[in-house]
Amino acid sequence: MAESFKYSNNQGHGGELYQSADTNQPTMTTAQGCPVSDNQNSLKAGHRGPGLMEDHVLHEKLFHFDHERIPERVAHARGYGAHGYFEAYDALDDLTSADIFQRKGEKRRFLLI
Predict the structure, then answer these.
(1) Are 100 and 86 in contact (CB under 8 A)?
(2) What pLDDT, on the 0 to 100 scale, is given for residue 1?
(3) DSSP category for residue 69
(4) DSSP H helical segments within 42-99, as ranges?
(5) Among 8, 26, 29, which Cα is nearest to 17's?
(6) Can you tell me the distance from the alpha carbon of 105 to that of 78, in angstroms, rounded to the nearest whole number?
(7) CA-to-CA distance for 72 and 88, rounded, in angstroms?
(8) What is the pLDDT of residues 71-90, one digit of tens each?
């Protein structure tokens, strides 16, 4: 899978790399259709200053992150279960202390809900 961007050799004052769109991929845009060349860095006031309010690309990223829908927990979810027998073919006492793996050939009934 080819990457949709590549880093240029240009660096900012803090050493951050700047991205440029690859010619083989379509241009990345905002939700309003404005082309974006670099969405990993934000506009700052000075070398280490605060982020600027006019950085509309950062504001759009934060808006989409804050308004992401998180599905609610289903109160009465239907589950699936399994039942049957488990038989250890070899004792695994050197690997684990779980009782079910200690004895070779012993069948145990199980029920998973």
Answers:
(1) yes
(2) 42
(3) P
(4) 56-66
(5) 8
(6) 34
(7) 40
(8) 787 777 676 778 888 888 99
What CA–CA distance (Å, rounded) separates 54 from 72? Answer: 34
Place of tokens 């109160």: 75
Structure tokens at 99: 């009782």
Q: Which tokens hold the place of 87?
A: 């038989």
Question: How many H helices and E strands in the chain?
Answer: 1, 4
Query: Phi/psi zone of residue 75: left (φ > 0), alpha (ψ -120 to 50 degrees), beta?
Result: alpha
CB-based contact 58:42 (threshold 8 Å): yes
pTM: 0.45
CA dihedral 66, 68, 71, 73 (to 10 degrees): -20
17-41 pLDDT per residue, tens:
666 666 677 778 888 888 887 777 8
Q: Of the candidates 83, 86, 84, which has an alpha carbon nearest to the alpha carbon of residue 99? A: 86
Separation of alpha carbons 65 and 76, rounded Å: 29
